[in-house]
Amino acid sequence: MIIGLFNDWVVVVLMMIGLYIVIAHGNLIKKIVGLAIFQTSVFILYISMANVEGGSAPILAEGIKQFSNPLPHVLILTAIVVGVATTALGLALVVRIKEAYGSIEEEDIQHLDNKTQDETEIQATEGDQS
Amino acid sequence: MISHLPILQVIVPLMAAPICLLLKRSQLVWLFSLFASAIAFIISVLLLQQVMTSGVISYELGGWEAPWGIEYRIDKLNAFLLLIISAISTVVLIAAQTSIEKEIPKEKHTLFYILYLLSLTGMLGIVSTGDAFNVFVFLEISSLSAYALIALGQDRRALWASYQYLIMGTIGATFILIGIGLMYQMTGTLNMQDLSQRLPEVAQTRTVFTAFAFVIVGVCLKLALFPLHLWLPNAYAYAPSIVTAFFAATATKVAIYLLIRFTFTVFGLSFSFTTLPLQGLFLLLGLTGIFVASSAAIYQNNVKHVFAYSSIAQVGYIIVGLSTSTITGLTATLLHLFNHALMKSAIFLALGAVVYRLGNVQLSSFNGLGRQMPLTMAAIVIGGLSLIGVPLTVGFVSKWYLLTALLEKGWWPVAILILLGSLLAVIYVWRIVEAAYFKKPLADSVPVKEAPLFFLIPIWLLITANIYFGIDTRLSLQVASAAAQSLFGVSP
Amino acid sequence: MKDLFAVVMLLGIYSLLSASFFVAMDAVDVAFTEAAVGAGISTLLMLVVITMTGRSEKTTRHKPWLALLVVVFTGGVLIYGTFDMPYFGIADAPIHSHVAPRYINESMKEIGIPNIVTSVLASYRAFDTFGEVVVIFTAGIGVMALLSVGRRPEEDEKTTAINDSMHEEYLVIRIVTKMLIPFILLYALYVQFHGDFGPGGGFQAGVIFAAAIILYTMLFGLTTARKVINQSFIQFIAAAGVLLYGCVGIVSMLNGANFFDYNVLASDPVAGQHLGILLIEWGVGCTVASVMIMIFFNFAGRREMQQNNEKVNNIEGDSL
Fold first, then answer.
1. What is the pLDDT of residues C178-223, one digit of tens each?
2. Do C232 and C189 sit in the same domain of this protein?
3. Is the CB of residue C37 less than 8 Å from the CB of residue A84?
4. Does C76 touch chain A (CB under 8 A)?
5. Is the pLDDT of residue A71 over 60?
6. Shortest CB distance from C67 goes to which of A20, A37, A107?
7. Does the pLDDT at position A130 exceed 50?
8. Which one in B79, B145, B395, C28 has a CA-CA gap of 20 to 30 Å to C150?
9. What's phi and psi for C94, nearest 5 deg?
10. A85 CB near a chain B CB, below 8 Å?
C-alpha cells in the first residue's frame, strides 16, 4: 500500500505547500507563486493517474501494446494553459496595484484602504450635519 | 439549423468577441455585442420552447458519441438558466454605452465589450455543457474575463478587489479540478450522465467522498456562500456599474446551477443528501449567511455595498431552499434564481444611473434624490420592495414558495427565521428610501437631472418584469417546477 | 526566503523538475508544454514584474495558524481520499478500462495519426481545446485592458536613442542571438507540423515562436521590436486564430454535420480529420504566439513607461 499510494501522498504535500503560501504570505507575487505550485501539483496528480506499469508514451508505433492513458494528458495540456493565463492576469493586476498603492504587501494595502474608507465616512457624516 | 441551437447558443457570443477586436470602433462594437447577445437570447427562448415540448436535447460535438466526445445536454434546468443569463445580459448591454462613457477611459471601451462577451460565453458554456472537464474550461473563461472587468473600475480598490477575487476564484477552480480528477480516477469518465451511472458503484469509497467535498467547496467559493463570501462585497462595489449589474444577476446563479447539477444529477440525490450531512450544513450556512450578511448590509454607507451584502443574503435563501431537498423547495430555489436576477440587475442598473449623474453612491449623496431623479429612485424602491418580498412583486412569489416548502417539511422555526431575515431587509431598504425622499439635499450639492433614456429603458423593462412576474406567475412557475420535477426524476 | 528573485527562480526549477517527471510518466506532450510555459514564459513574466515591483518581501506573515489549520485539514481530507484509490500504475484501474481504450485502439482507424494525444485533443475533445484557446485570448485581452499605455510618437525617438546606446554593450550576445533566432523560428514550425507524429502541436509551437520574438525584444529593445511587429497586427492575428478555429467548426456545421465534425471536410473521413486538425492547430498556434507576444509587450511597455516617468521626475527634481 505504501508504494502504491506514495506518489499521491507526495502530491498532496506539494499541493498543501502551495496552498499554505497562498494563504499565509502577504506578498502578492508570492501568493501567485503559491498558486502556480498548487496548480502544478494538481497536474502531477492527473499525470500520475494516467501512468500504466510498463506502458509507453501514447504515440502509436510498431511493436508497442501498452500505452499510458492519453486523456489526462489532454486535460492537463488544457489546464497548463489555463494556469499560465491566470498567472499572466494576476501579475498584470500586481503591476497595477503597485502603481496605485505603492506597495505589494497585503497589510499595507489593507491599511491604506481602511484609511480611505474612514475618510469618506467622515466626509459623509460632516455632510449630514451641515 | 434548429438542431444546432445548443452549440450556437455558446458559439455566437464566442465568435463575436474576436470580431469585436477587429471592428475597433466602440460605437460599432457596442451595437454588435448587443446584436450578438440578443441573438443568444432568441436562441435560448427557442431552446426553452423545444425542451418544454420535446424533452432533453443532446448535441454531440465533433460527432463523437457521449463519453468519448464532449456532449451538450440541454434539459429544463439549463434551458431556464440560459434564458435568465442571456436575457439579463441583453437588457444590461442596452445601458452599457452610456454608462461606461463616464466610468471607463475611451480607449478601453472595445476591450470592455470583448471581455463582457467572453464572460457571457463562459457562463453560457458552463450551463449548457454535459461534460465535467468542459465545465472547468468555461469556468475559467468566465472568471478570467470577470477579473479583468472588475479591475476596470475607477477606484483603485477595484484592483485590490479583483486580485482577491482572482486568488479565491483560482483556488476554487483548482478545487473543482481536483474533485473532477478524483471522480475521473474512480469511474474513468468525464461525461456527467455517464458519471451519474457509474458513481453509485463506487459511492462508498473514501475517494468519492473526497471528490464530492472538493467539488462542493470549490463551487461554494464561486458562489460566495457564507463564510466563503469575503471576496464579493468589494468586487461588486468597485467594479464598473454595468459589470456589477450583469454579475450580480448572473455569476452567482451559474455557481448555484453547478451546485444543483453536481448534487442532484452527478452524485445523485440520495448520496448528496442522505449519505452525507449536506442538508444540515446547507441549512446552517444558509441561515447564518442571511443574518450575518443582512446585518452587515444595514451598516454600510456605500449603497453598492448594501446591495452586495444583500446578494450574499439572497444566496442564503437559495441555499435554504436547496437544503429542504423536496420538489417544492427546489422550485422555490429556481424561482428565486430567476426573480433575484430580475431585481438585482434592476437595482444595480439604477445605481449605475446614479453614478452616471453623481459620480458616487455614498448614502449621503442620496439625500433628496427622490425629487431629482424620480424614475430612477422609484425603480430602486420597487426593487427594494421586491427584495423584502412585498406582495405583487416577484420577491413575494419566491418567498411564498420557500415558506411553503419549509412548512411542508415541518421546519416552522426556520420559516420564522426567514421572516425575521426579511425584516432586516426592510431596515436596509428603508435607509435608502429615507435618504432619498425624507432628507433635504446637501447644502453644497449640485442639483442633478433624471437619468438618460438609455438607462431608463432597461431599468424599467426589468422593473416591469419584476411586477409582471409577481402577478402572473404562470410562466416562471411552470418552468421552475417542471425543471425541479425532472431533477427528482418525476415526470410532470 | 525573502528574496523574490530566488523564489521565482526556484519556481522555474520546480516547473522544470515536474516537466522531467512528466517525461518519466510517459506524458511527453505535457512535459513539453510545462517546460515551455511553466519554466519559460511564466518565470519570465514574473521576473519582469519583479523588476517593476521590487524584489524583497516584508517579513511579516499574517494568519499563519489559520493557514496551517486550513492546509492541514484540506491535506487530511485528500490523504483520506487516497486510501481507496487504485494503486499507482495498475493497468486495470477504471480509468484505463472505460473511455480510454477506444482512443488507443480506434484512433488510428478513425483519425489516422499516430500521436493519440493530438487525436484526442484536436478531434475527440476539440471543444475543450477551443475553450483553451479562448482562455488564452481572454488573458491577452485582460492584460491589455489592464496594462496598455497610449503611446506618443515623440517619446519613441528618445527611447530609441537610449536603447541603442545601451545595447551596444552586449555585442556578443546580440550577434549570437541574431544567429539563433531563425533556428528557433524554424524549430517552431517543425513543432507545429510534427504534432501529428510526435510530441508537439500548435500550442507548443506558438510558445516557442513567441519565445523567439521575446528574446529579440529583450536584446534589441521594445521600440525596435515594435517596428518589426506592429501592435494591431498582433491583435489581428490573435483574433484571426480564434476565428479560424471556430470557422472550421462552422464549416462542418454548414456541411450538415455537427460542430467540429471534421469527417465532412473532405470526401474521405480520414482526410477530413487530417485537414481539420491541421487547420485548428494553425488557429491554436497563431493565437497562442500572438497572445504571448502581446502579453510580453504590454508588460514591457508598462515598465518602459514607468522608467520614463521616473526619469522625467528625476530631471525635474534636479532642476529644482
1. 888 889 889 888 888 887 777 778 888 999 999 888 888 888 777 7
2. yes
3. yes
4. no
5. yes
6. A20
7. no
8. B145
9. -55, -35
10. yes
pLDDT at site B492: 46
- Predicted confidence at residue B405, as pLDDT, reads 92
Q: How many domains does chain A fold into?
A: 1
Taken in order C81, C83, C89, C94, the sign of the CA dihedral is negative
Number of domains in chain C: 2
Is there a domain that residue B165 lies in? no
pLDDT for residue A129? 47
Binary contact (A8, C85; C-beta < 8 A): yes
State how far the alpha carbon of C35 is from the alpha carbons of B89, B411, C300, in Å: 40, 57, 22
| A58: in domain | no
Work out the minimum CA distance from C84 to partner chain B, whole angstroms. 6
Domain that residue C228 falls in: 115-319
Query: Do A20 and C28 lie within an 8 Å CB cutoff?
Result: no
* Digit-coded pLDDT (tens) for C44-56: 999 989 988 887 8
B93: Cβ–Cβ under 8 A, 6 or more apart, which residues? B30, B33, B34, B37, B116, B242
- Can you tell me whether residue B451 is helix, strand or coil? coil
Quote the cell numbers at residue B288: 447564518
Residue A59 lies in a domain: no
Q: Are residues C47 and C172 in the same domain?
A: no
Structural domain that includes position B317 = 277-492
Q: Which of B130-144, C7-21, C78-92 has the lowest mean pLDDT?
A: C78-92
Residue C69 shares a structural domain with residue C207: no
Q: What's the burial of B299, exposed, middle or buried (CB within 10 Å: 0-12/13-18/19+)? A: exposed
Cell triple for residue B295?
Answer: 446585518
**Is pLDDT of B156 > 90?**
no
Asked whether the beta carbons of residue A73 and residue C117 sit closer than 8 angstroms, the reply is yes
Contacting residues of A for B161, CB less than 8 Å apart: none
Q: Is B391 among the domain residues?
A: yes
Higher pLDDT, B428 or A117: B428
Q: Do C89 and A52 touch (CB under 8 A)?
A: yes
- Shortest CB distance from B68 goes to which of C86, C99, C142? C99
Domain assignment present for residue A57? The answer is no
Check residue A2 and give its pLDDT.
63
Query: CB-CB: which of C100, C132, C141 is closest to B115?
Result: C141
Rg over alpha carbons for chain C, rounded to the nearest Å, is: 24
Minimum CA–CA partner of A57 in chain C: C26
pLDDT value of residue B141: 94
Q: Average of pLDDT values for C263-278? A: 86
Question: Does residue B1 lie within any of the structural domains?
Answer: no
**B95 pLDDT above the threshold of 60:** yes
Count of alpha carbons within 13 Å of B109, Cβ hemisphere only? 22
Question: For residue B71, what are the β-bridge partners?
Answer: B60
- The grid coordinates listed for C264 are 465532412
Chain B CB within 8 Å of residue A35 CB: yes
User: Which of C 261-320 lie inside 8 A of B, CB atoms?
Assistant: 261-263
Number of Cβ within a 10 Å radius of residue C161: 11
Residue A94's CATH number: 1.10.287.3510
Q: Of C46, C70, C85, which residue sits at a domain end?
A: C85
Please determine, for residue B444, whether its predicted confidence score (pLDDT) is greater than 80. no
Indicate the number of domains in chain B.
1
